[in-house]
Amino acid sequence: MEPELSHAVADRVATVVIRNPAKRNAMTAAMWRALPPLLAELAADPEVRALVLTGEGGTFCAGADISTLRGSPAEAQGLAVAAEEALAAFPKPTLAAVKGHCVGGGAQLAAACDLRLAEEGALFGVTPARLGIVYPASSTRRLVSLVGPATAKYLLFSAELIGTDRALRTGLVDEVLPAGELDKRIAALTATLATRSLLTQAAAKDYADGRTDRDTHWTTQTLASPDTEEGVTAFLERREPRFTWSVPTSG
């Protein structure tokens, strides 16, 4: 099987699968390049209400394919950062479903998701110190925002792998599931997210990510959207709301 990113959309949830089983789902240059346009396509699809990123089989992603670093490490890192930033900017809820190793560039991708759920036994590592690479500034800041400066320094200084107990305790993951339960939990959570107001979710995502340039945008969107009236009416009528706001094509 050639390394690739595959995707499918079902029940209003897009699932993107990292596939490179010969190298524990390491990301090749072509895969890094393919991710931003794929995300743009899924962001523009009104049927997609949430996105799950996962790996083929029992591994999430072992990082970047090291062979891609031999030519131009700076170029390879630039591709990874562009993919990471595209994932972080995806305007709908994103979830990383982690089994096995989530290391290096894989950890970058997981950190760029809104939520991270892991199966017991998963291992996490941020490993540029093993290769003499300076971790990107944006990636470092995102890691610090998740786990705090002390844990971020530990991960970056040591390049050691940590298990799900420590990952949960430090905030690197949001939930840890027993073996065999991760897919079920992801399906249940995304089904819930798909019923909620995307207007609320998208605005909350901007604000939680620290954007200070979107206040007027979200005020305008709220005034023009029927979601608030629908939500209140549905609550009073004791029925499930039917939210209709979608991401504007202009962002």
From TrEMBL:
This protein's UniProt keywords: Isomerase, Lyase
InterPro entries in the record: ClpP/crotonase-like_dom_sf, Enoyl-CoA_hydra/iso, Enoyl-CoA_hydra_C
Pfam families reported for this sequence: ECH_1
Gene Ontology annotations of biological process type: fatty acid beta-oxidation
Gene3D superfamilies: 2-enoyl-CoA Hydratase, Chain A, domain 1 (3.90.226.10), Lyase 2-enoyl-coa Hydratase, Chain A, domain 2 (1.10.12.10)
Molecular function GO terms recorded: isomerase activity; lyase activity
Family of the protein in this entry: Belongs to the enoyl-CoA hydratase/isomerase family.
Name of the protein in question: Enoyl-CoA hydratase/isomerase family protein
Organism placement in taxonomy: Bacteria, Bacillati, Actinomycetota, Actinomycetes, Kitasatosporales
